[in-house]
Every structure is written in C-alpha cells, then in structure tokens.
Amino acid sequence: MIIINSSSKNGLKMIQPFFPNVVPLGIGYLMAVAERENMRMELVDQQIEEDVVGAVKKLVGKMERPYIFGFSVLTAALKSSIEVSRKLKELYPDSVIVFGGIHPSALPEEILCHGHIDLVVIGEGEKAMPELYRHVKSGKDYRHLDNIAYMKDGKMVRNRQSALPEDIEKMPAFPYHRFDHNKYDLGIIMTSRGCPYDCIFCSNRVITGKRYRFRSAASIMEDLNTIHYKYNKDHISFWDDNLLVSKDRINALLAEIKKAGFDKKISFTFQARADNVDKAILTEMFNSGFKSIFFGIETASDRLMKVLKKGESVEDCRRAVKMAKDIGFIVGATFIYGIPGETHKDRMDCTGLARELRLDSVRYNNATPYPGTELFNIAKKEGRLNVIGLYENFNSVACFVENPFRKIPLSYVPAGTSEDEIRMDILLSYFRFYFDFGKLSKILTKRDELGWFHMGGTIMEKARKIPHLLVLAGIMLVKFWQLFLYVLIGNMKRVFHTVR
C-alpha cells in the first residue's frame, strides 16, 4: 500500500521557503500500525517529491497487485489529490483508490462523485486501514467494513461508524525512523486526541471527536528520548490542540521530564486555552523546560467570543497572556478576521490588544469555513460560502501570503463588511504589529520558538534563504503601498461626503 501525503506544495506562497517540512503525524501513526500488522506501507510525500506519480511508479514495481493508493487529504490539498489520484487510476485501473483525512471525512459524497475514487475512510483510520488492506489483498469484498463510504448504483453508502478507540495508549510508538531527519523537522510530538470544546471554526473534531484521550507520561517520555537522543533535537513542539485539558497528566509528565534532566536539555513549545492555565501550572511548566506558549485568542470582543462559541472571555485571554509573560514565556497568538457580525472596530481592537499584551508573535487569519465546521454550515445557510474550483481559495492565511497582483478570493465574507476591508485590515494589523526593529531583527536572527518563521540554523541555511527574503521584502513593500492607497482613498471619500 502506498500512502500519499497530499500537499498544496505552495500553500504558504511567498513564505513557504521559511517553513520546514512537517512530519505528517496522522500518516505516521498509520505506518506504525502497518508495521505492527506486517503490512507493506510506503509513503510518498508531496512536500518532498516533485513528481509524485513518478515516485509511485518506482515503488509499485516491488509490490503485488492489486495496488492500494491511500490519500490523506486536507482541504488546501484537495485539487492536488484529485489530480494525482486520477492519473494513478488511469495507469493502474485495477487499483483501489482510498481517500481519508478531514476533508473526505466531512464531505464523503462530494469526494466519491469523482468516479475514480473507490472509497472514503471516515474518521481515525488506524482500525479501518488494516482490515481494508487484508480484504483487498485477499480479493474479498470490503464494502461491509465499518468507517467507510462508497458509491453504489449512483448513491453513497455510508457504513456504521464504530466508536473511537478510548485507549490511545495501545497505539504503537510513532515511527520517527520512517522519516528522513535531513528532510523533515522531527522535533514534534502529539500526546492527545480530541477536544471537548465547541469552537465553530475548528475541523479537527471531524477526525478526533470531542472526547479527550491522552497518552501516559511514560509513553510520551519514550518519544522524547527518541527525538532528543537519536535525532539531536533540543527544541520540541507539542502539537496537541490543547495540552492542558487534564492537569493531572501534565503534572505527571513534568515530573518525568525533570527526572530525565530534559528541563535542562530541551525547550518545549505548546498550545493551550487561556481558561485552562493558572499560575501554578505555568510556573511548573516553565521550570520544566516549556518556554513558549501559543494561545488562540481570536478576537478582542466578548460578543464575538460568543459567536465563535469559544467558551472563554477576552479577560481570560488577557489574564493568561500577562501571567505567561510575567513568568517568562515567549507568547504567540492568533486572531480571526471575518467573524459573523464583526466590524472594522472589532478588528482594530484586536490590533490594540496584541500591542497591549506585548505578544511576541501574532498571526491574523481570515475566517475560513472549512468543511466539517459549524462556520461552514453558517456560511452555506447565509449564501456566503464561496468555493472556487476544488476549494482552491480555502486558505486561512490567504490575505497575507497572496500575490498582491493576483489576490485569492476569500471563502467567506460576513454581512456588513467587504473582502477588501478584511484584507486591508489584516495587512494593517500586521504592519502595525511587526513594524518594530526589535521584532524584525529577532525573527531574522534568532530561532523562532513558535515555529512560524525559520531562517535556518546555520550560516549556509540563512544564506540560501536571502534571495527568498529579498523577494518577500519586495512583495511586502507593494502590499504596504496598496494599503496606503486604500487608506488614503478611503479618507478622501469620507472628506468628500462630509463636504457635500
């Protein structure tokens, strides 16, 4: 079986060169299960391979028919997935094409309408894939299996969805050895699944569900030992949606980290909700090597917090950030522009809050109604869901990374505002926050602990990125000029209407 990690390849456009190749965690766990089940599973990663079809051709020569091609698909990479899978079906008509991941799980019928795709695995795939593999390879009918959808007589059949595994501790260890450390950043770890909260913009629950499941401290330490000692990583990012849902398990982990001496050898980055932190846990984490923290603040308006169903307040965020900063954390955050009911003032209040809190890094995202989210349903109901092609404009950082002369149409613009307003407010917020010599010099000369912008560790790595940096600087100057003209013309219009 060959798993293809579909990638938009250039989803981050002009800032793509400044981000490392990320280990596909979901695929990695499938590969770990495959090893345990004695299944032959190979990875072709579009982040790495320029010619995906060519890479597949090299592998299939050593495999037995029927071939199984599995695609792990995020919305941003849907177009690429469709194109590559169609080519493979043409080359190998008797192959079985399987789509899985967030987008296919959210919209299986839409995926299966592409006639060359045989089935969709819905939700977590560690249980479904071995069963499917054995049935296909032995020539047995697989259409009765749980957690899959397929087309029959022009209609989608969706089989029973079995319960998610409660005990992820029984999962095999993540196979870091299957990823070339020269091509990937191996300094990442996932220690839990699921999120019990109701944010309308989050699509992860399509796969992981709302029930929070987590690994033991002993299991996590095995991975940390591998990452640090085998791959020489001294900075590790926890990729959990929210690391602090269970403080008891974190306290147990911190004790093990100190016992192993990792508090002196490794720095850690993590993400948490503002209403889950307190001074005691943050202090203990900081003393255990956790030096940078990321909050999804999203808005500076309690009214919009309720629209987003965040379940926390702006004051919760303000308190959490100030607490973390006082302890010594590097603190980053995101804000979302384009929330239903949002105004220009709401967006500018976000900029003010970011400056007030002295955040170290900020990302201003445009609201994107990804399939599987409540925001997707809201946008559809309002008649404001804007899908270009195969969701090619579904990019939450579109306003920042787009070519200034070839803009990416937003996937959602709420009533009462315009696309240009959102786009320019995002640019204005970025310029207001980052036009600071201290912030810019830190980004360009030091390691970005939050992982948003990486110039490279060695002099040679930095030197190779200088041409890309010059291009980025030129594009940002163009964007700044466009923003200046937008503000100037807007002010002239207001003066004109006042005089009239």
Describe the structure.
The protein is an alpha/beta fold and 500 residues long. The chain folds into 2 domains: 157 residues, Cobalamin-binding domain (Rossmann fold), CATH 3.40.50; 269 residues, Aldolase class I (TIM Barrel), CATH 3.20.20.70. 42% of the residues lie in helices and 14% in strands. The chain has 19 helices and 15 strands. The strands form 3 sheets. A 7-stranded mixed sheet has the order 2-1-3-4-5-6-7, with helices on both faces. Strands 8-11-12-13-14-15 form a 6-stranded parallel sheet. The mean pLDDT is 90.
Protein topology:
Layout: E1 2-5, H1 25-36, E2 42-45, H2 52-60, E3 68-72, H3 78-91, E4 96-100, H4 102-106, H5 108-112, E5 119-121, H6 128-137, E6 148-152, E7 155-158, E8 188-189, E9 192-193, H7 205-208, E10 213-214, H8 217-230, E11 235-238, H9 247-259, H10 262-265, E12 267-271, H11 279-287, E13 290-298, H12 302-308, H13 314-327, E14 330-337, H14 344-356, E15 361-366, H15 374-382, H16 398-401, H17 419-434, H18 437-445, H19 459-499
Helix pairs in contact: 8-9, 14-17, 17-19
Short description:
The chain is of the alpha/beta class and 500 residues long. It contains 19 helices and 15 strands. It starts with a strand and ends with a helix.
Distinct helical segment count: 19
Main sheet?
7 strands, mixed
Question: Helicity, in percent?
Answer: 40-55%
Q: What is the number of domains?
A: 2
What is the SS-derived class?
alpha/beta
Task: State the low-pLDDT regions, or none.
Answer: none
Principal-axis shape: globular
Q: Would you count the extended β strands for me?
A: 15
CATH superfamily of the largest domain: Aldolase class I
CATH structural architecture of the largest domain: Alpha-Beta Barrel
The neighbouring-strand order within the major sheet is 2-1-3-4-5-6-7
